[in-house]
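Collaborator request, handled under Task 6.
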Amino acid sequence: MKHSKEDFIYRDVNLYEEIKDIPQSYLSDFYDDMVVKECTAISTFENKEVRVSSESERLALYKEQMKSNSVKAKTLLESYASHLNTSPFLQPTNALYVQSMFQVAWGPFLAALSVGLKGDHKEITTQSLKGICHAIKISCIFNMTHERDAYIGCLARFTSLQDTHTQRNNNKNGSGVVEALSKKNIDCIQALITIALDNGNSLGNSWLEILHCMSQLNHKA
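Structure tokens returned to the collaborator:
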């Protein structure tokens, strides 16, 4: 025992009101009984009754139990994660959910996709171009003119056709020869033509951007 008999009796008598009337002789005998026999605790471990008679055994049992709980928790989390990976996406019951989400997120999407399209990583530029095309389609479906014009304007800039006239005027030798189009420029031109064919009735004022690019492309030919 960590405490002497006097400390044990004094502590219990002064801290617990309900045992103040218990004779000190009884507490003294109780203390002696604990010292001689030691307290035996009963705990449950994996549905088995285990008796521990010392603090070291109790600590070892506690560590073993915590390790077992950790393994079980990890197994449950991995099982839940695998279920998420294999489960199908939930289909929205109302298309207006898409419109509401796009109204909130179209600006950050445009910023991220334009940065991705500006880079040189092939996979990133490809996925960014697809993202811009999908965003234009969504804005056309819901007649979101401001968002549609912003995305089409972004795509038109990456065709490198909007600056053709400026490039001719600024050409040092005055020959009117402009820089050759890169593969990224050609991919953006193809995407712009596809958008015009698929969503022509919903483009509105964005046709100006598309027709301007097509006109400049004709001059390049």
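The cover message to the collaborator said: "Confidence is low (pLDDT under 50) at residues 38-47. The chain is about 70% helix and 5% strand. Please let us know whether this matches your experimental observations."
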